[in-house]
Amino acid sequence: MHLSTFSLIMQTDDRAQDPALRLLNILTEMLGLLILTLAVVTFTLCRKNPQVSSPPRLHLSACLLLAHPFFLVIQSSNHMQEVPCGVLSVFVHYFYLCCFLWTSIEAAVLLLTTRRLEQLNQNTQQLTSWKHMYVIGHGLPLVIVGMYVGMKPDGYGSQHFRPTL
C-alpha cells in the first residue's frame, strides 16, 4: 500500500490513464483498505488479552486506514479547488506523521521488551499502559502540523500539481 502511494507521488508520465492500470489500482487499494480494517478490528477485539494486545499497532493501523482514503481523494480529483485540497492535505500530513510516530513507539516497546525478557510479564503490562504514548502518537503530530499551518498557511494545496490516479 505504501509503495503504491509513493509511485503515485513520483509519477511523471500518463500511464495512469490506462483503464487496466486504473482498475488494478482500485482493486489493490480496496484490498489494502479491507486488510487494514481487519487489522483494526482484530487489534480492537484482542485489546483485553495482554499477550496479543498492542496499542501502538492498533493506532498505527487506524491511522493508515484513515490516511489512505484522504490521499486517494486528493490523487483522484483533477479539478479540486485549492482550499479543499489543502484541508485534505493537512489531514494526510497529520495521519502520516501519526503513522511514523506510532511505528517508532512500537519499535521502542519491542526494544524494551526484548531487553528485559526475564521480566516480560511485568514490563508488558507497564509498556502497554503508557498514557504518554497516546500524547506522543497523536499530540506531537498535531503540534507539528499546527505549527506548519501557522507558519505557512498557504503551504498545503496547489493549483499546479494535480497528479491523476
What series of H and E elements makes up the topology?
HHHHHH
Structural class designation: mainly alpha
The number of helical segments is 6
Span of the ends, CA to CA? 14 Å
**What is the molecular shape?**
flat
Oligomer: single chain
- Strand percentage: under 5%
Main sheet summary:
none
Mean pLDDT value = 75
Residue runs with pLDDT of under 50 for 5 or more positions: 161-165
Instruction: Count the E strands.
Output: 0
Estimated helix fraction: over 70%
Radius of gyration: 19 Å
Keywords:
single chain; 165 residues; 6 helices; 73% helix; disordered C terminus
Summarize the structure.
By secondary structure, the chain is an all-alpha fold. The protein is built from 6 helices and no strands.
Description:
By secondary structure, this protein is mainly alpha-helical. The chain is 73% helix and 0% strand. It contains 6 helices and no strands. The two termini are 14 Å apart.
